[in-house]
């Protein structure tokens, strides 16, 4: 499931599984929920993305999430999906990251692109949140707080998810539980 594969004219390298915590590898799990099948639930504190299936089951994927100050929670809809997406770093990212500034005009899709093999574009209403569910060229970062708010998956996992969910899929992002009010 994590071996090398050819996809869209590119090679997705095999994942060195010694660098990824096995708890974050894709698997079907029990997942009792009130959410209807087809919903994506992202549990950022646990670092899992669940695609709700029938009969109290879900496909679970390990994820990398937003680092301190970049995490978010809420509800969104996948309004667009792309294979080997181009990357257009937001202006705020360009201001803080010289590597991103280099790609202000966009980085073409491919094996070196930080969005990886697939991207799901998250919208609230008709407004692009600028957050994505996307692949990564750094599978060893799965299970950590590393992104600028996007949800990243191993490339083989984001390809699997891409085939399972249509545009219009509901995404619920659960953030850290705030401390109780004093």
Automatic annotation (TrEMBL):
Superkingdom as given in the UniProt entry: Bacteria
SUPFAM superfamilies: L,D-transpeptidase catalytic domain-like
Annotated metabolic or biological route of this protein: Cell wall biogenesis; peptidoglycan biosynthesis
Active site (record annotation): 134 (proton donor/acceptor), 150 (nucleophile)
InterPro entries with a match to the protein in the record: LD-transpeptidase, LD_TPept_cat_dom, Transpep_catalytic_dom
Pfam families linked: YkuD (PF03734)
Keywords assigned by UniProt, alphabetized: Cell shape, Cell wall biogenesis/degradation, Glycosyltransferase, Hydrolase, Peptidoglycan synthesis, Transferase
One GO process term, biological-process aspect: regulation of cell shape
MF term (GO), any: glycosyltransferase activity
Residues of the L,D-TPase catalytic domain: 38-174
GO cellular component terms, semicolon-separated: extracellular region
Family from the record: Belongs to the YkuD family.
Protein name: L,D-TPase catalytic domain-containing protein
Organism whose genome encodes this protein: uncultured Pleomorphomonas sp
């Amino acid at each position: 499931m994590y071996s090398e594969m050819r996809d869209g004219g590119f090679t997705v390298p095999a994942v060195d599984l010694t660098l990824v915590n096995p708890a974050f590898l894709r698997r079907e799990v029990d997942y009792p929920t009130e959410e209807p099948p087809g919903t994506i639930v992202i549990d950022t504190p646990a670092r899992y993305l669940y695609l709700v299936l029938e009969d109290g089951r879900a496909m679970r994927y390990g994820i990398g999430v937003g680092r301190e100050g970049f995490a978010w929670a809420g509800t969104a809809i996948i309004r667009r999906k792309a294979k080997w997406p181009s990357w257009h770093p937001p202006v705020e990212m360009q201001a803080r990251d010289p590597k991103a500034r280099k790609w202000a005009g966009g980085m073409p899709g491919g094996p070196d692109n930080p969005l990886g093999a697939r991207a799901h574009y998250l919208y609230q209403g008709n407004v692009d949140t600028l957050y994505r569910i996307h692949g990564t060229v750094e599978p060893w970062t799965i299970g950590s707080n590393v992104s600028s708010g996007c949800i990243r998956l191993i490339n083989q996992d984001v390809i699997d998810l891409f085939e399972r969910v249509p545009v219009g899929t509901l995404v619920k992002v659960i953030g850290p539980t705030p401390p109780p009010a004093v």
